[in-house]
Amino acid sequence: MTSHEIRQAFLDFFKSKGHLIVPSAPLVAKNDPTLMFNNSGMAQFKDFFLGNGTPPSKRIADTQKCLRVSGKHNDLEDVGFDTYHHTMFEMLGNWSFGDYFKKEALAWSWELLTEVYKLPKERIYVSVFKGDEKDGVPFDQEAWDIWKEMVGEDRIILGNKKDNFWEMGDTGPCGPCSEIHIDLRDQAEVDAKSGKELVNADHPQVVEIWNNVFMQFERKADGSLISLPSKHVDTGMGFERLCMAIQGKKSNYDTDIFQNTIQVIEKMCGKKYGVNGTLNTTDYTDIAMRVIADHLRAVSFAIADGQLPSNAKAGYVIRRILRRAIRYGYSYLGFTEPFMSQLVPVLAEQFKDVFPELKAQEDFVTRVVNEEEKSFLRTLEAGIKRFEIISAQTPAGGIINGETVFELSDTFGFPVDLTALLAKEKGYKIDEAGYEKALAEQKNRSRQDAAKEATDWVEVSEGGDFEFLGYDTLEANAQIVKYRKV
Ligand code: ATP
Ligand code: MG
Ligand code: MG
Ligand code: MG
């Protein structure tokens, strides 16, 4: 099955079970001060669970664009270095708002995986919440009993609060979850060690694909737990991981979702992906291609959803992701000219039927990415040279001082996490406290300057010669590129 068919089969399946199919909410979370980006399928339905609104149907299903690069869920550092965490990914989900509960939800997930997708039953493990006495939450006997009938006791794992209990916050709706994991290792490896021992152990081929959350309690301010009169189901399945399993691959990047982009990157840089196997997580050519194929999606869809790269908040997160990708392309694939922008049309074409917002704004997104690339590539080389000089003076395993981290950010536009990444590659750490101090001092200075200046903007008039000075990474929404007339 192609990824398109896999997605469609999910939606068709839940439609046949009486679900209303709705579009994905934008990547950028709207009207939710606690969330920068949508990081799960349920985010757009939060109000329904809190009783602050009525859903258009008691049964809903969709595919939601998610971004996990900030806050509680931040997978950014893993991306490229593993084969199954992305910044942006699709989360397939089905919901019951006070309608069906565990019996139907678990039976349908089993039916879909094993009968529609025909995944091998003997490669599937499920987890059930084992209870937590201290916290007053009971063992999920109900889920255990349902799974026992379908998968058998020996495939059920008991999970702790960290993996198998969901809560929105210190108070509010909460409940146990039941995860579904799949073992994609070769048979010889399976024979040598049971997949059961590898569940939730960060093995790249024994991965969690689906989480079924059962909201059945409410935590009160005094810590007590009451049963909710109306119980809800919230599920989330990682689409890219599901495609990996169905397409018989061992890495998300080997599916048709990413292969398309990777092949274009290969052509553009003249290097091959996966020369030593596509599961290699130490080869920087491969890491760079995975990072670019991944970050391209996050950046393009975020811009299409209205989040332009900028110097503040969500915009700065997008700029950081883009710069991270540009730096990988520059250092490991030899790109010295804009390349991400050339990939936007490839992505837009691939997703035109699922998320048409990108195709509809293809030119605009391409232009934004291109401008960002051009401006960052102008200082990237000089910044890397500066970093090399400093690191040559730093003893092995040492710390890059805060002033340098600040200089790289202020003059060369290197986000702190990018400098931290460069440092890590060489076995250094960065002095974050020192950086914060330098930043605070600079803020102070510019506050004093701002009192003197009439505008944030430095006009660059036609015809004159200007020397590029760097970026002002400080003031929210201020002009970022600084020039001086020469
Ligand atoms: P993991 O333990 O692998 O980090 P999770 O427990 O954080 O996953 P959930 O919050 O339960 O994930 O999200 C539901 C599903 O979304 C997961 O079962 C997984 O298939 C998928 N998923 C979660 N994070 C990512 C990611 N960064 N990239 C791709 N898929 C993801
Ligand atoms: Mg996670
Ligand atoms: Mg997990
Ligand atoms: Mg989970």
Helix percentage: 40-55%
Which class of the largest domain in CATH terms? Answer: Alpha Beta
Major sheet attributes: 9 strands, mixed
The CATH fourth-level homologous superfamily of the largest domain: Bira Bifunctional Protein, Domain 2
Bound molecules: adenosine-5'-triphosphate, magnesium ion
> Can you tell me the residue ranges where pLDDT is under 50 for at least 5 consecutive residues?
453-486
Measured by DSSP, the beta-strand proportion falls in 15-25%
Individual helix count: 16
As for the number of domains, it is 2
Protein structure class: alpha+beta
Oligomeric organization of the protein chains: single chain
Strand tally: 15
Give a structural overview.
There is one protein chain. The protein has 486 residues and is α+β, with helices and mostly antiparallel strands. The chain has two domains: 3-246, BirA Bifunctional Protein, domain 2, CATH 3.30.930.10; 255-485, no CATH class. It has helices spanning 3-16, 46-49, 102-116, 141-150, 161-164, 187-192, 239-246, 256-269, 284-304, 313-333, 340-350, 356-360, 362-392, 402-412, 416-425, 432-452, and strands spanning 20-21, 59-67, 69-70, 73-74, 88-97, 124-129, 156-159, 165-167, 172-183, 206-219, 225-238, 399-400, 429-430, 466-471, 481-485. Strands 1, 2, 5, 6, 7, 8, 9, 10 and 11 form a nine-stranded mixed sheet that branches. A two-stranded antiparallel sheet has the order 3-4. The chain is globular, with a radius of gyration of 24 Å. Residues 453-486 have low confidence and may be disordered. The structure holds adenosine-5'-triphosphate and magnesium ion (MG) (3 copies). This is Alanine--tRNA ligase. Its EC number is 6.1.1.7.
